[in-house]
Design a protein that fits this description.
Blueprint lengths: L5 H4 L2 E4 L1 H4 L10 H6 L1 H7 L3 E4 L3 E2 L11 E5 L6 H13 L3 E6 L9 H8 L11 E2 L12 E2 L5 E2 L1 E4 L4 E4 L14 H16 L4 E4 L31 H14 L6 E4 L21 E2 L11 H16 L6 E3 L8 H5 L2 H11 L5 E5 L56 H5 L5 H14 L1 H5 L1 E4 L7 E8 L2 E8 L5 E2 L6 E5 L12 E2 L4 E5 L1
Parallel strand pairs: 1-2, 1-15, 2-5, 5-11, 11-12, 12-13, 14-15
Antiparallel strand pairs: 3-4, 6-10, 7-8, 9-10, 16-17, 17-18, 18-22, 19-21, 20-22
Helix pairs in contact: 7-8, 11-13
Length: about 500
């Protein structure tokens, strides 16, 4: 098999910096905390880390409201801290991706402050401003996701126009149809590429292109936040410009885009036939029921849609915006089986910090809730030790997940049967198998209901994966081979006996 780009074979680990590790004792994680725990990530076996936003921000949306793209917010440290992190990560063979927020800024960003100052401002057209509708109300029916039921527009009394904000009013949308905006945003990418970052995760990148007519959403979809509906070809042209910029740098710099459109058929266009995004998130798998037929249908659609244009898929079970998959699936055996699925299907897997520990969402009482979108539970601090505080001051900025001591890094490192060791072994198996890293995937038909099975192959390697989605044992006589890995450890090193336990998954070597 010819060498694949690193971003096709990598396992990427998402870090929410506020909750990963606290080095200075203020209860909030920062860049130095990440740097001090790189050994954990190296031991685990990840190839790259993605840091959720660390840019200067008023933190109304915890960094996704950027006030300066070329500086670090003091809560996270300094530019020197990032330089040290990049150098130390690279020294361990770990690449570094930053979260870039191209569709909107903070209302505190100097660009918006200037834009809002006057209709005649040179930066007025850097954002999306519109007159009121003929009835004096908002320009169209677009909605924002939070607070629920709110218009995506806010009226500016001083200048008599509305500004568009697909999210909070404090996050005005940039106008990417203005060439000056494009140039300025390209410069923010160059700033970080010149400092050695390996790429970017682009936040809601499908929202940068918009039809200037800003037509109403169809009545049947008017209740849906417009950021989940926007799908405009202008975005593809902007992505081509970004790809050209990235390709001009050495070292296979890359971008993975958050394309939050809940229709897999709409994702491949953002690859622009190899001239757009290197990777795009495909989120429907995060919302699938734990049923074999649902996952089989998902894999079939991804193969059909992505293979047709030679695009490389991504896979993700958990992130900072949605409940952790251990919480969604309801028990640890299923979470283990899902991990084996994630790390053995064809594509680039993304792990969310703490999923290797089997963490659940924290229960956050109302008086400690801080996120405007109600996402605090999945952003709870990572437990490092079994002791009180779990490696954090008491209290940390958010409550810990359930059973934090038993599911801490310290406790699970000492238990060979833990979720942490399962992830480490899966990553090692993937690293050693060309079939699992980049081989073809063929779904198998001769399996009983409730079982999903597929074969991964390259000319010199082969693996067979079988996952039982049922809550009872299932006979699978058609599958044969040596059990190389099992999610519950049963049968490893011996021939497969033709039975899968409840929610058990195995990797077989023919």
């Amino acid at each position: 098999m010819s060498a694949l780009p690193w971003w096709k074979t990598a396992v990427v680990y998402q870090i929410y910096p506020r909750s990963f590790a606290d080095a200075n004792g203020d209860g909030v994680g920062e860049i130095e905390g990440v740097r001090q725990h790189l050994d954990h990530l190296s031991w685990l076996g990840v190839d790259a880390i993605w840091l959720s936003p660390i840019f200067r921000s008023p933190m109304r949306d915890f960094g996704y409201d950027v006030a300066d793209y070329c500086d670090i917010d003091p809560v996270f440290g300094t530019l020197a801290d990032v330089d040290a992190l990049i150098a130390d990560a690279h020294g361990r063979g770990i690449r570094v991706l930053l979260d870039w927020v191209p569709a909107h800024t903070s209302s505190d960003h100097p660009w918006f402050v200037e834009s809002r100052s006057s209709r005649l401002s040179p930066k007025r057209d850097w954002y999306v401003w519109r007159d009121p509708d003929s009835d004096g109300t908002v320009p169209n029916n677009w909605q924002r996701p939070w607070p629920r039921g709110g218009a995506a527009w806010t009226f500016d009394e001083a200048t008599g126009q509305y500004w568009l904000h697909s999210f909070l009013p404090d996050q005005p949308d940039l106008n990417w149809e203005n060439p000056d905006v494009v140039r300025a945003m390209h410069e923010t990418l160059r700033f970080w590429l010149d400092r050695g970052v390996d790429g970017f995760r682009a936040d809601v990148v499908h929202n940068i292109g918009k039809d200037p007519a800003l037509k109403d959403a169809p009545a049947a979809a008017a209740h849906v936040p417009h950021c989940a509906l926007n799908h405009d070809p202008r975005t593809i042209d902007h992505l081509r410009g970004i790809r050209s910029l990235l390709d001009a740098y050495p070292g296979e710099r890359m971008m993975v885009g958050e394309v939050f459109l809940m229709d897999t058929s709409k994702i491949p266009p953002y690859y622009a036939d190899g001239e757009g995004l290197h990777l795009a998130f495909n989120f429907p798998p995060m919302f699938l029921p734990w049923k074999s037929e649902s996952w089989r249908g998902c894999l079939e659609q991804v193969q059909a849609e992505f293979d047709a244009i030679d695009a490389w898929p991504t896979w993700v079970l958990s992130n900072h915006d949605w409940p952790r998959h251990r919480t969604r699936l309801g028990n640890e055996p299923r979470a283990r089986a899902a991990a084996m699925l994630l790390l053995t299907v064809r594509g680039t897997p993304f792990l969310y910090m703490g999923e290797e520990l089997g963490l659940e969402d924290a229960v956050v009482p109302p008086e400690r809730a801080v996120d405007p979108g109600g996402r605090d539970g999945c952003r709870a601090p990572m437990p490092w030790t079994t002791s009180r505080g779990h490696g954090w001051p008491d209290p940390a900025w958010l409550p810990f997940p359930p059973k934090a001591g038993a599911r801490s890094v310290e406790a699970e490192r000492e238990d060979p049967g833990s979720m942490l060791h399962l992830y480490r072994r899966l990553l090692q198996l993937r690293r050693e198998s060309s079939a699992l890293r980049g081989g073809a995937l063929a779904l198998l038909d001769d399996v009983p209901p409730g079982v999903l099975a597929y074969r991964r192959t390259t000319p010199d390697d082969e693996r067979l994966v079988a996952i039982n989605f049922e809550e009872h044992e299932v006979a699978t006589a058609s599958l044969t081979g040596l059990v190389e890995m099992s999610t519950d450890g049963r049968g490893e090193g011996a021939p497969f006996v033709g039975r899968l336990g409840a929610d058990q998954a195995v990797v077989l070597r023919p």
